[in-house]
Amino acid sequence: MRNRRNTIGLNWFSIVVILVAIALLMVELIAFSRSRITYPLGLRIGGVPVGNLNRQASAEKLLEVYNQPIELHYNNEAIHLNPATVGFELNLESMLAAADLTRTGGPFWSEFWDYLWASQSNPRQVPLDANFSESQLRTYLSEEISPRYDLAAIPPRPIAGSVDYAPGVPGTTVDIDIAIFQIENALKSPNKRLVTLTLGNTTAGRPSFQNLEILLKQTVDLAGYDGIAGTYLLDLQTGAELHFAYQQGIDLSISPDVPFSAISTIKIPIMISTYRRLGDPPAEEAINLLSGMITASGNDPADWVMEQFIDEIRGPLEVTSDMQALGLENTFLAGYFRLGSPLLARYETPANSRIDVDTDLDPYNQTTLSDMGTLLSDLYQCEQYGGGALVAVFPNEITQSECRDMVTFLTRNDTPFLIEAGTPEGTRIAHKHGWASDNTGAIRTMGDAGIVYTPSGDYVLVFYFYHPVQIIWDPVSTLIGDLSRAIYNYYNLP
What we know:
alpha+beta
């Protein structure tokens, strides 16, 4: 009887234990089933933690995080970029579908067993799946950011009352290609939403020739010079010209150009005509005479070289013919330099036919700013490249080697005034200068014409100044030096 009671008690106990176990199992099963409604702890979608969140809450959290504006820093300015502005979109469905697999992708009972034994592995992380429009971002940067925040470079500016320039101020511009890379990374980061934009420096180019012309005329005005100031500048890199004849605040017409007595600058055409007729190698006597004509500005060597190597009688006219062949219709030499030499011809040119301007022209030699500048440009093209009008008009008669020799002669005309006075010591200048006095000894015309070689660009520079009464040497030569320095400084800015 007692054994039977024990057996019944044991049975009831077993039933209770089983029922309790079943109840606990059901509780755990329900808890496990509920846990499969939310994402597992530790799961991140696109770097955003979504553990214990359901699908809807996870989507909302992702949108909240990735719709935060990107903060752009441009120097001290903060700019907020709405991701939608550049077409940023999350591919929510694809990311949530991948996340769903972390909670429902495995066998139910196998995962339940792991759940019971707390042996669940860390969930696989879901990478970000998002798109943006690079073209929209580029447009935003180029049309919204750059115009508003970029700083334009300020070019060097003339210092008032001088021919020197104050240094320019660099500008800044956003580096758009780097910015696109930076912003893309920020758009795809849940927490690194700040971008310090990479900026580049910009420098302004030279001021315009128009600004330089204003400076040169102001310099003439400040010097108080009341005669005709003629200036011709040719940029040998770009072909740009600056050309004016100016008197007491008034621009004289340069069409046709203003004529001037050519004075000793006519020796440049004589040298070119002589080299056209020299053999290779040139006669030593010719070289000696050319040296005396250019470096010592001798008139006798000029006459002798024309008589011996061009034409004893018609030498000056042959020089004129060569200049006309080059298209220089306002440049001529009508007689020898020695006193009493006859005038071999009278030349009427577009320049000296003008009746609106009087520069007391010498009937023996005349030229214009543009003619002399063009001739020096032709010499430069021949010297540097073996081309240009000299080689084209006189093929096999003028060579690049001869042009280099001619330029060398002109560089030996070493003077401490006029064009050279406005350049640093050691600057290479190939030039010829001169002036003419009347029978009272008063200088009426002064000029200097040359090629200036500088680190930042070579140029042709021609000055002819005329005064109806007298050019006072010191102030006018100083003025020409100042004009030369203004132009040199323009090409070689601080």
